[in-house]
Amino acid sequence: MAEMSYADGILEGFRYLLATYPKCFTIGQGLWSPWYVGTTMKDLDKEFGKERVIDTPVSELATTGAAIGASLHGYRPIVIHPRMDFMLLASDPIVNQAAKWRHMLGGAVSPAVTIRSIINRGGEQGAQHSQALHAWYAHIPGLRVVMPATPADARDLLISATLCDDPVIYIDDRWCYEWTDDVGPIEEQPLEVQGPRVLRQGEDVTIAAAGYSTRLALDAAEALAASGLSAEVIDVRVLNPFDPEPIVRSVEKTGRFAAIDGGWSTCGFSAELLATVAEKVAPQKLKAPSVRITLPDAPAPTSKALEDVYYPDDRLIAERLRALAA
Amino acid sequence: MELRTTLGTLADPHSPVEPLELRNLPASRLTEDLRTMVRIRQAEAAVGDMVESGEAKCPCHLGIGQEAVAVGICGALTARDRLYGGHRAHSQYIALGGDLTAMFAEILGKQTGASKGMGGSMHLYAPETGFHGSVPIVAGTVPVAVGAALAAKMDGSDIVAVPVFGDGACEEGGVHEALNMASIMKLPVVFVVENNLYSSHLDINLRQPFDSVARFAQAHGIESEVVDGNDVVATRLAMDRLVARARAGEGPGFLEAVTYRWRGHVGHREDIDVGVRRSSDEVAAWRARDPIRRLVDALISRKDMSEGEFNAMTTHVQGEVDSAVEAARQADYPPVKALIDMVYAHAAGGR
Ligand SMILES: Cc1ncc(C[n+]2csc(CCOP(=O)(O)OP(=O)(O)O)c2C)c(N)n1
Ligand SMILES: [Mg+2]
Q1: Known catalytic membership, residue A60
Q2: What pLDDT, in 10s, does the model give residues B232-285?
Q3: Chain A residue numbers touching B276 (CB-CB < 8 A)
């Protein structure tokens, strides 16, 4: 076990993949810059060469489409979108092409591309530099969507995603980069067997979340413990294909459910989580209506005065959960 | 790496520059242009200081060194025209006469800001001046401006739309769709590219096979001009020609103004976030092509101005900038309800 930050987890994942698999390459904006994508890809171009660590023109659509094309011919590309907002310009290759080709062409085609998308918000960046659109992508059959919350997952889900024969959207969050944890050695794991994981056991309430929101859930569980309430925290990890069972089992035990999500409420990922509870947990086992904690249904503001109320903070989350658990 | 240049000396800061040709333009107008360039530079320097001190938190992209482009193109427009900017748009906002206090207030997130404190540096709005909005999604406003031109044409007006974007933006597919459409529909739009030879950390030779982007206009049958963007007179005259054609219903134009940003891509620094191959020698050479100094020198040699008068102008403008910053500091933050109230035109059922 070694102590590793989330950012270093990502970097280690890239280093392992590029060192182990000659057919793996990575392509996207900022890859030759010491000022971009944090430290998560630092000096990869120097270590593995600019032929395999490719910086690009400002062309999200062509970059993503080209990576899909290369994946159809034996390569394992990892596309980088330094912000999820910019990835919207690559919507066609992702949604109409990568997600569909296997199914619509009879099952034999493997668009084995990994698309890394970074959630980068706060800092008064505003509406076009803040979005967390994981729910959009998780809505699309054919795309696998993963959101690591821990340093180990930051590394290992990147590896599983890249080795997977399907297109995978790998979403990391800059607000997670500094978290550290003890992380064991790399063991390759098929993505197909990955799913939600209980990170903390509890009896009174179940909280499910993904990515940075999982950290908020763990913090909230800690705050609740101080009030004598015990929360079970489930890290969803894989948003699509989504395995509801761990959440169902947990809520059957606790009788109370809360989802925390960094997206918006309406048709957001929290809606999927609550739908799971509504569909699969018998009403008589539920002690209270479920709760979701999300962004308000508004674009991200810039002004500090508004940003402060836009992103749910520890205090607000603990308050809402205490009310639920009481 | 082989450099393929079609811009030649325009892109080579080490080649000597000729003194600005003032072309018999009246001193009064050139002095006003100079004042606007100084205003842009000093306002942006003030923004840089606010970033450095931590007072301004939003991402700020400074165009110090590029002032002549904004002043040259905006001089050819009226307040009825429709300009759209990108992430580096302070200069166009100011050149069109946007209020300085409202710009600083926007950057500080105050409710008296140009966009009511909802957008920060990258999202300015001053339609009364002809500045119809700036956004940081690269190339995002280019098709939008084509639509503004379509509306102007449908109205039978002589209004012209102007998207201002960068050499990097030309790598986005949407720009090429917009060029083709504007051409085939003969729309009154003048595309303006501030070619500062960089897109964040990559110089144009790492991103495109040629350093001039006017070739994209030629491919779509659009009238184009390539100018020294550090020459406010040449920029203005070229823009005048393209705008006149567009106004007269003769179709779109494309102006490539070659220039250079002195600071990094974002923020106040000159030494980080600049360009992986950018050298301090290159910056020094471009600084010697300072668009402001070149205009001052030409005005002095034509005896339209003295160094003392230029210094007095600089001091006066600094006073304006300082009081605008101070007024912005005094303003209030937006009320929390603005967060929800501004999402839709009309709130339904009190929600
Ligand atoms: C769609 C999109 N992709 C990437 C970015 C990140 N980005 C912001 S500014 C910029 C550089 C654009 O260069 P250019 O168009 O030449 O304008 P300049 O910064 O030189 O003024 C990039 C890549 C973005 N904002 N939007
Ligand atoms: Mg540029």
Answers
A1: yes
A2: 999 999 999 999 999 999 999 999 999 999 999 999 998 888 889 999 999 999
A3: 32-34
Q: Which amino acid is at B101?
A: T
The response to whether residue B263 sits with its C-beta less than 6 Å from ligand 1 reads no
Residue count of chain B, please give it.
351
What does the block give as tokens for A61? 């659509």
A126 contact residues in B (CB cutoff 8 A): 58, 118-120, 122-123, 136
Same domain, A148 and A288: no
d(CA A131, CA A123): 13
The sign of the CA dihedral B296, B299, B302, B308 is negative
Are the CB atoms for B32 and B74 separated by under 8 Å? no
List of domains in chain B? 26-341 (3.40.50.970)
Average pLDDT over chain B reads 96
Range of the domain at A146: 2-193
CA neighbor of B31 nearest in space, from B75, B91, B62: B75
Q: Which of residues 52-81 of A touch B (CB under 8 A)?
A: 55-62
B27-64 burial, b if ≥16 CB within 10 A, otherwise e? eeebbebbbbbbbbbbbbbbbbebbeeeebbbbbbbbb
Examine the fold and report which residue of A193, A220, A242 is the final residue of a domain before the chain moves on: A193
User: A202 and A188: one domain?
Assistant: no
Q: In terms of domains, do A182 and A275 share one?
A: no
